[in-house]
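User: quick one - fold this with fe (ii) ion bound?
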Amino acid sequence: MPIRLIHVSDLHVGAHEERPIEPALRALVDHVSPRLILATGDLTHRGRPEQHERAAAFLQSLGPPVLAVPGNHDIPYTAPARFTRPWVEFERRWQTTEPVFSSDELHVVGLNSARPWRHQSGGVRAAALARAAGRLRAAPAAALRVVCLHHHLIGAPWRSRKRPVARRGHILATLADAGAELILAGHIHQSAVSERREFEVGLPAERSVTIAIAPGLGQPRPSRHGEARGLHVIEADEREISIETLVYANDAFTSIAVRRYPRRAGAGSS
Ligand SMILES: [Fe+2]
Ligand SMILES: [Fe+2]
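Assistant: Sure. Structure tokens for the protein plus fe (ii) ion:
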């Protein structure tokens, strides 16, 4: 049985009326019946308590279990709360900024890349990266190993001033060495999907890591070009991982692309 996941990001609840997307999203969730919904940050626009409440209620009302990590918009916008209690509202709804989901077939590790003293760019502390690597290594033998964080490890296909997460090469190599097969993120409000060997040549053949950046589910700045609303539907069996990009327009989700990658090098070529 393949594993199905729905990956959403950047809801930005509170910035713009997100209600109209609800019927189409509920229909999609019912149709896909994902094992898990993954939400990679910027659930809210300003990190306010009522925005966190609405975002969590919305995601948790969809049916499947939800795993969420915080984005740079999920912390208080202003000092001193931004620095003294950045994670209180997020943790009130989601318990932790480093969630883990584990079953025999699926092992997901969350990383917190939001940094209160930075507005846009993200970073992952060395200790948090080490914890994530340890958690990945604890995965059941046959489980699909997934990492979720907010900040992107590959760039936007259209223009964006947003830079990838700091030290991304080191983060990617550490997670890959710990067994990560799929790394999910958001932040750029555009879909970008790649396999590590597409941009880092000369890697050992057995290493295969798929990186998928979800488009924004919300659209806080509708006039900004190059930011379609949408999400990713992920399906994985023992041979391959497929990432389907769906965009939202005219009250419906439309499939735009399906990208498939072997779970191990050579697995898809026999
Ligand atoms: Fe965002
Ligand atoms: Fe963001």
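One thing worth noting: Residues 129 and 170 are 10 Å apart (CA to CA).
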